[in-house]
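Below: protein 1.
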Amino acid sequence: MRHLLLVGLSWVWAQQQCGTDFLLERLSEVERAAQEALEAQYRAAFLNRTNFPARQAQECPESRYIIPVVVHIIHSGWGQPDSLPAARVLTQIEQLFNDYRRRPYTKGYGSGVDAEIEFSLATKAPNGSPHSGITYTHYRDAGLASPRVNMTGSQANARTLKTNVTWPKDKYLNIWVVREICQNSDNCPEPDVLGFATLPGMSQEEQGVVVSSAYFGNTSGGQTTTHENGHYLNLYHTFQGDFAPAGCTGLSVSTCLTQGDRVCDTPPSRIPNYGNARRQNTCQEDIPILGGDAPDQVRNFMDYLSDPSLDLFTQGQVFRMHNALENASNRRTLWQSSNLQATGTGPYGRVKANFAIKGCEQPPCYVCPGQPIELVSYSWGQPFTFRWEIRQGATAVATSTNGPCATLQAPNTPGTYDVYLRVQNFVASAETTYRNFLIVRDPQQVASYPFAEGFEGGTFPPQGWIVVNPDYQLRNSVITWDRYSMPEGGGFGQSNACARLRHHRYYNKGQADYLISPPIAIPTSAQNPGVAFEVYYRAVRWSGTISGVGTSHPLLYADTLAVYVSEDCGSTWAKIYEEGGEALDVTGSAIQALNSSYPTEVFPPEGPNNQWVRKAVRLGDQYKGKTILLRIESRTGMGNNLYLDNVRVADNLQPVGSLLVPEKIHVSVAPNPAQAETFLLINGAAGNKVRCKLLTLSGQLIWGSVFTVTEDSYSMPLPIAELAAGVYIVEVEIGGRRWVQRLLR
């Protein structure tokens, strides 16, 4: 158990933790020089990212790097709890895949990115003979006096273990699973370390990961190994030692590559965090890639929260891991094809079939008859043969051998279908069937026009509506769109009910939840068709003190609301509206709660009221004669509850009073990376004043301009001709909203 002790006037952490920082404190001069050389190379690569092109969005998301793994179980006797069965090891390997590949329909599908890294359990021993990739050694045979590994102190024996029980460290990631780990054998009444790992610059003899058996392959988590493998791939803690106890205020784009975790898109945290996720802002940074200051990213795998709350790596962390795999000599050998063949991993090892439907973030997946369905494989073992089938019972109604990404046509007959995938690599095959995975809508069940939904019915979602909760596997997964009602009236006007999303209780910043309407047929005779709805929302600007954590600096906790429309049954979506924070607040100004506790969650006024705000957006004539879907999306900033009522699709809808909701504004820079000419492109902002800045990565102003957009599709050249090669920031502000984008020169 992790627990907190109060000693005197200071907080002392007495809970189990990661031991990697203990190793960092004891680096030899040779190790420190090797690690710093890799850091310098990483900084140079980040500032000139041409060596590591980002995967294009249209590419199929296969594993880019395969890392062979051997797991050594160090136990106290057969049948003892620390003599883990092979099933626990395979569970952990699957959890690593889910976390590093951000696999849909698992806990690993958080608000981060796909790391494109796969850990593959070896099927060949170093001598080439077949092997399970799991070894079992009694602690005495491993050279230990007890089933405990001591990292430091007079009885330090981590090196003894790694010397006596090991496979070649330039060919395998060795993971040792032991009953107990202590930082210091001379002062360790209870085991205080969950695991530790070596960074690439550390001694080759020490390379690998050590994990406590109680935290390895847990069905409820297993993120200790995810965390330690992150260290092995050169990630630091998000609260890395530069921040405590001095603090981290003032961290900027010029220092984020050299301080803290050396990653610029992970908001720094002053201290490690334990337990469940929470909102906090323990550092005040100014980094454009984060939009300025940002709350701590406590769900990051490289923090200390309990396993069920951890769910993400950032793009910057992924770049750092890829850079280590490409440039650290003791990491680059692992994923080479010759080594995969020698160790029986990747395409020469175990294979398991997993997949997802693109655009479907929570099954069952709804489609229309004949609609193209994009199937994406998330299979272990780099298979190269695929067979996809849509089945009803034992009958395959659609088949494809394309893969790992394939497109099948949905059946023409409405109903519920299974989806089947069979895969094969050089040595093995596997198959899986997702039952009742696909639902083909009945085209006759179309809502009439004009359309209205007030959420007054006793069931939620209403008939024909769909709630999509992408993080349904994560802790707090019950938080998504639901129905709110009060006997005295809690909706708009005299309505008793409305739809609600409880951002006040949501601690997964950036996660979106969707409310998808039934198909709505808009007649060709429609006059100025549009979408309207009422909103009740209050943003929060908060600072205060968190017990055991310290100061949480002032920050606007702003949630957003967006509306999308689809005319192809959800294959593609066009955003027609988006507002958030104080622009969405019914008063136009956030609740101010500075130097106090976070305010209680807001509820709409009871009884008949007029404090809601009406929003209205024109659809445009292009949707006349079409059947559309609406997707109402709210993305959490961990702020306050959002209430939605009285959704209409009808003619000549008008906003209340002087409120005018603009069409969606889109800002981009193209081409990027820059060529002879690069343009700032602005769509949907005609008549608006624009402020544009071109900055260095350190925030120095190179060029700025203020102008008024005269056309709906507007472009202007950026002054890049004299810029040196590197990374720059383009910052655009329109109507109080800001867009920040990197420009590669």
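Below: protein 2.
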Amino acid sequence: MTLYSADMTNHIEHNGMNIFDIPKHILPKELTNILAISENVRIERIVSTGQVSNWYDQTETEWLVLLSGKSMIEYDAGETVLLTSGDTLMIPPHKRHRVIYTSSEPPCVWLCVFWK
């Protein structure tokens, strides 16, 4: 598989992967795979099995889709968002948030796109 940058000039040779090829046991910490990266864009596959996070204050926009599992995101104003399989979410830069719940069965499989 060949991945291209947005302007189609830079490419990364990639052997490919199955997005759902994940460990069968509960992980001690999240598993993050960078699927593609360029100067302005990063695409990650993240697997969570019960992990939660500290507060994030990102300089990038984040778009995500939860491919499997259930999760809950909390914003610093107290608002929470429950995500289930197939749900998407856009998080603007500097929108403070944290992950307060991820299911372990089934595991959460996230596809996240970050850009500047």
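The longest strand covers residues 41-48.
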